[in-house]
Amino acid sequence: MATRGHERIERDISPSNPSPRPVLTDVSAAPAQPELKTMRIQENVLARHERQLLNWLCARMPGWVTPDLLTALGVIGAILTFVGYAASNLADTWLWLAIAGYVIQWFGDSMDGSLARWRKIERPSYGYFIDHSCDGLTTALIVWGIGTTPYVTMDVVMVALVGYLLLSIHAYLSARVLGEFKLSYLAAGPTELRFLLIGLTVAMMVLGNGPGLFGSISGFDVFVGGIGAILMTLFVVQTLVTGRRLALAAARDGQGRR
Protein backbone atom coordinates (compact mmCIF):
# COMPACT_ATOMS: atom_id res chain seq x y z
CA MET A 1 0.00 0.00 0.00
CA ALA A 2 1.23 3.49 -0.84
CA THR A 3 -0.27 6.93 -0.53
CA ARG A 4 -0.33 9.76 -3.04
CA GLY A 5 -2.03 12.96 -2.01
CA HIS A 6 -5.49 12.03 -0.75
CA GLU A 7 -5.61 8.69 -2.55
CA ARG A 8 -4.62 5.28 -1.26
CA ILE A 9 -3.46 2.61 -3.69
CA GLU A 10 -4.71 -0.88 -2.83
CA ARG A 11 -4.55 -4.21 -4.60
CA ASP A 12 -7.86 -5.73 -5.68
CA ILE A 13 -7.28 -9.47 -5.34
CA SER A 14 -10.30 -11.75 -5.80
CA PRO A 15 -11.20 -14.97 -7.66
CA SER A 16 -12.77 -12.89 -10.41
CA ASN A 17 -9.66 -10.76 -10.66
CA PRO A 18 -6.72 -13.18 -10.93
CA SER A 19 -4.30 -10.45 -11.99
CA PRO A 20 -4.33 -7.79 -9.25
CA ARG A 21 -4.70 -4.23 -10.41
CA PRO A 22 -4.23 -1.09 -8.38
CA VAL A 23 -7.47 0.42 -7.10
CA LEU A 24 -7.52 4.07 -6.04
CA THR A 25 -9.50 4.72 -2.87
CA ASP A 26 -10.26 8.26 -1.78
CA VAL A 27 -9.25 8.71 1.85
CA SER A 28 -9.60 12.47 2.02
CA ALA A 29 -12.79 12.08 4.05
CA ALA A 30 -11.07 9.97 6.69
CA PRO A 31 -10.78 11.77 10.03
CA ALA A 32 -7.28 13.12 10.50
CA GLN A 33 -5.56 12.36 13.77
CA PRO A 34 -4.45 15.48 15.63
CA GLU A 35 -0.71 16.03 15.45
CA LEU A 36 0.91 15.36 18.80
CA LYS A 37 3.48 17.97 19.71
CA THR A 38 6.65 16.33 20.95
CA MET A 39 8.42 17.65 24.04
CA ARG A 40 12.13 16.91 24.37
CA ILE A 41 13.06 15.74 27.87
CA GLN A 42 16.78 16.04 28.60
CA GLU A 43 17.83 15.78 32.24
CA ASN A 44 21.40 14.54 31.93
CA VAL A 45 24.16 15.97 34.09
CA LEU A 46 25.92 17.88 31.30
CA ALA A 47 22.78 19.10 29.51
CA ARG A 48 22.87 22.75 30.62
CA HIS A 49 26.59 23.29 30.02
CA GLU A 50 26.42 21.42 26.72
CA ARG A 51 23.53 23.61 25.58
CA GLN A 52 25.50 26.75 26.42
CA LEU A 53 28.44 25.46 24.38
CA LEU A 54 26.24 24.49 21.43
CA ASN A 55 24.54 27.89 21.40
CA TRP A 56 27.97 29.57 21.45
CA LEU A 57 29.08 27.44 18.50
CA CYS A 58 25.84 28.05 16.57
CA ALA A 59 26.27 31.81 16.84
CA ARG A 60 29.72 31.52 15.26
CA MET A 61 29.08 28.87 12.64
CA PRO A 62 29.85 30.00 9.04
CA GLY A 63 26.89 30.30 6.71
CA TRP A 64 28.12 27.52 4.43
CA VAL A 65 27.85 24.99 7.27
CA THR A 66 24.41 23.37 7.04
CA PRO A 67 22.59 20.89 9.29
CA ASP A 68 22.85 18.21 6.59
CA LEU A 69 26.61 18.75 6.40
CA LEU A 70 26.87 18.36 10.17
CA THR A 71 24.81 15.16 10.06
CA ALA A 72 27.21 13.76 7.47
CA LEU A 73 30.14 14.84 9.64
CA GLY A 74 28.68 12.89 12.55
CA VAL A 75 28.56 9.74 10.41
CA ILE A 76 32.17 10.32 9.33
CA GLY A 77 33.16 10.58 12.98
CA ALA A 78 31.55 7.21 13.70
CA ILE A 79 33.40 5.68 10.74
CA LEU A 80 36.70 7.02 12.10
CA THR A 81 35.89 5.52 15.50
CA PHE A 82 35.19 2.17 13.88
CA VAL A 83 38.46 2.29 11.92
CA GLY A 84 40.43 3.25 15.04
CA TYR A 85 39.00 0.36 17.01
CA ALA A 86 39.51 -2.16 14.20
CA ALA A 87 43.10 -1.00 13.63
CA SER A 88 43.91 -1.42 17.33
CA ASN A 89 44.63 -5.04 16.45
CA LEU A 90 47.77 -3.67 14.77
CA ALA A 91 48.78 -1.16 17.45
CA ASP A 92 46.97 0.34 20.42
CA THR A 93 47.95 3.85 19.27
CA TRP A 94 45.14 3.57 16.72
CA LEU A 95 42.75 3.99 19.63
CA TRP A 96 43.53 7.71 19.53
CA LEU A 97 41.76 7.79 16.17
CA ALA A 98 38.72 6.23 17.83
CA ILE A 99 38.75 8.97 20.47
CA ALA A 100 39.06 11.68 17.82
CA GLY A 101 36.13 10.06 16.02
CA TYR A 102 34.00 10.39 19.17
CA VAL A 103 34.69 14.13 19.29
CA ILE A 104 33.83 14.58 15.61
CA GLN A 105 30.71 12.44 15.96
CA TRP A 106 29.56 14.46 18.99
CA PHE A 107 30.09 17.72 17.12
CA GLY A 108 28.12 16.64 14.06
CA ASP A 109 25.36 14.83 15.92
CA SER A 110 24.81 17.56 18.51
CA MET A 111 25.14 20.52 16.19
CA ASP A 112 22.91 19.54 13.26
CA GLY A 113 19.59 19.95 15.04
CA SER A 114 20.91 22.77 17.22
CA LEU A 115 21.96 24.79 14.17
CA ALA A 116 18.63 24.20 12.44
CA ARG A 117 16.74 25.46 15.49
CA TRP A 118 19.15 28.39 15.93
CA ARG A 119 18.63 29.52 12.34
CA LYS A 120 14.91 28.68 12.46
CA ILE A 121 15.19 26.40 9.42
CA GLU A 122 13.82 23.26 11.05
CA ARG A 123 12.31 20.54 8.91
CA PRO A 124 10.70 18.50 11.70
CA SER A 125 9.69 15.36 9.80
CA TYR A 126 12.78 15.27 7.57
CA GLY A 127 15.13 16.09 10.43
CA TYR A 128 13.59 13.54 12.78
CA PHE A 129 13.80 10.78 10.16
CA ILE A 130 17.33 11.50 8.90
CA ASP A 131 18.81 12.27 12.31
CA HIS A 132 17.59 9.12 14.01
CA SER A 133 18.31 6.94 11.01
CA CYS A 134 21.90 8.16 11.17
CA ASP A 135 21.90 7.63 14.94
CA GLY A 136 21.13 3.96 14.39
CA LEU A 137 23.91 3.65 11.83
CA THR A 138 26.53 5.46 13.91
CA THR A 139 25.66 3.50 17.05
CA ALA A 140 26.03 0.22 15.16
CA LEU A 141 29.40 1.32 13.71
CA ILE A 142 30.80 2.38 17.08
CA VAL A 143 29.64 -0.69 18.99
CA TRP A 144 30.70 -3.02 16.20
CA GLY A 145 34.09 -1.31 16.23
CA ILE A 146 34.49 -2.00 19.95
CA GLY A 147 33.79 -5.66 19.22
CA THR A 148 36.59 -5.82 16.65
CA THR A 149 39.22 -4.82 19.23
CA PRO A 150 41.28 -7.43 21.08
CA TYR A 151 39.87 -6.10 24.37
CA VAL A 152 36.13 -6.88 24.16
CA THR A 153 34.44 -9.89 22.57
CA MET A 154 31.86 -9.33 19.85
CA ASP A 155 29.20 -11.36 21.69
CA VAL A 156 29.32 -8.99 24.65
CA VAL A 157 29.16 -5.79 22.60
CA MET A 158 26.14 -7.15 20.72
CA VAL A 159 24.33 -7.40 24.06
CA ALA A 160 25.11 -3.72 24.67
CA LEU A 161 23.98 -2.81 21.15
CA VAL A 162 20.67 -4.62 21.59
CA GLY A 163 20.10 -2.81 24.89
CA TYR A 164 20.81 0.59 23.34
CA LEU A 165 18.57 -0.04 20.33
CA LEU A 166 15.73 -1.31 22.53
CA LEU A 167 15.89 1.86 24.61
CA SER A 168 16.00 3.93 21.41
CA ILE A 169 12.88 2.15 20.13
CA HIS A 170 11.16 2.96 23.42
CA ALA A 171 12.09 6.64 23.04
CA TYR A 172 10.72 6.78 19.48
CA LEU A 173 7.47 5.04 20.47
CA SER A 174 7.03 7.34 23.47
CA ALA A 175 7.45 10.35 21.20
CA ARG A 176 4.56 9.03 19.11
CA VAL A 177 2.12 7.95 21.83
CA LEU A 178 2.99 10.37 24.65
CA GLY A 179 4.47 13.34 22.84
CA GLU A 180 7.58 12.97 25.02
CA PHE A 181 10.99 12.34 23.50
CA LYS A 182 13.22 11.26 26.36
CA LEU A 183 16.90 11.89 25.68
CA SER A 184 18.35 10.85 29.04
CA TYR A 185 18.00 8.07 31.59
CA LEU A 186 19.53 7.88 35.07
CA ALA A 187 20.83 11.44 34.60
CA ALA A 188 22.88 10.31 31.60
CA GLY A 189 22.41 10.96 27.90
CA PRO A 190 24.36 10.43 24.67
CA THR A 191 27.12 12.85 25.69
CA GLU A 192 27.73 11.13 29.02
CA LEU A 193 27.76 7.79 27.22
CA ARG A 194 30.43 9.11 24.84
CA PHE A 195 32.57 10.18 27.80
CA LEU A 196 32.10 6.71 29.28
CA LEU A 197 33.24 5.05 26.06
CA ILE A 198 36.20 7.43 25.73
CA GLY A 199 37.19 6.45 29.27
CA LEU A 200 36.87 2.80 28.28
CA THR A 201 39.12 3.44 25.27
CA VAL A 202 41.77 5.15 27.40
CA ALA A 203 41.64 2.20 29.81
CA MET A 204 42.31 -0.13 26.89
CA MET A 205 45.53 1.74 26.14
CA VAL A 206 46.61 1.96 29.78
CA LEU A 207 45.71 -1.55 30.97
CA GLY A 208 46.27 -3.45 27.76
CA ASN A 209 44.87 -6.84 26.83
CA GLY A 210 45.85 -8.84 29.90
CA PRO A 211 44.39 -12.08 31.27
CA GLY A 212 40.66 -12.10 31.94
CA LEU A 213 39.10 -11.85 35.38
CA PHE A 214 37.04 -14.97 34.78
CA GLY A 215 39.07 -17.05 32.39
CA SER A 216 38.46 -15.80 28.87
CA ILE A 217 36.12 -13.03 30.12
CA SER A 218 38.04 -9.78 30.56
CA GLY A 219 37.25 -6.85 32.78
CA PHE A 220 36.32 -4.92 29.64
CA ASP A 221 33.78 -7.64 28.81
CA VAL A 222 32.26 -7.30 32.27
CA PHE A 223 32.10 -3.50 31.93
CA VAL A 224 30.48 -3.48 28.49
CA GLY A 225 28.16 -6.35 29.38
CA GLY A 226 27.12 -4.47 32.51
CA ILE A 227 26.20 -1.43 30.42
CA GLY A 228 24.12 -3.68 28.16
CA ALA A 229 22.32 -5.19 31.15
CA ILE A 230 21.53 -1.73 32.54
CA LEU A 231 20.15 -0.58 29.17
CA MET A 232 17.93 -3.66 28.85
CA THR A 233 16.67 -3.23 32.41
CA LEU A 234 15.84 0.41 31.69
CA PHE A 235 13.93 -0.66 28.59
CA VAL A 236 11.81 -3.15 30.55
CA VAL A 237 11.11 -0.69 33.39
CA GLN A 238 10.31 2.22 31.07
CA THR A 239 8.05 0.01 28.94
CA LEU A 240 6.07 -1.06 32.02
CA VAL A 241 5.81 2.53 33.27
CA THR A 242 4.70 3.87 29.89
CA GLY A 243 2.24 1.03 29.38
CA ARG A 244 0.64 1.78 32.75
CA ARG A 245 0.39 5.48 31.91
CA LEU A 246 -1.35 4.69 28.64
CA ALA A 247 -3.70 2.19 30.29
CA LEU A 248 -4.72 4.73 32.93
CA ALA A 249 -5.21 7.40 30.26
CA ALA A 250 -7.37 5.03 28.21
CA ALA A 251 -9.46 4.20 31.26
CA ARG A 252 -9.99 7.88 32.00
CA ASP A 253 -11.05 8.49 28.42
CA GLY A 254 -13.48 5.59 28.57
CA GLN A 255 -11.74 3.72 25.79
CA GLY A 256 -11.64 0.44 27.68
CA ARG A 257 -9.32 -2.30 26.61
CA ARG A 258 -7.41 -2.40 23.34
Automatic annotation (TrEMBL):
Residues 1-26 are annotated as: Disordered. GO terms for molecular function: phosphotransferase activity, for other substituted phosphate groups. InterPro entries: CDP-OH_P_trans, CDP-OH_PTrfase_TM_dom. One of its GO terms (cellular component) is membrane. The chain crosses the membrane at residues 69-87, 152-173, 185-207, 213-237. GO terms for biological process: phospholipid biosynthetic process. It comes from the Bacteria. Keywords: Membrane, Transmembrane, Transmembrane helix. The keyword Calcium does not apply. Residues 1-13 have a biased composition (Basic and acidic residues). The keyword Transmembrane helix applies. This is Phosphatidylglycerophosphate synthase.
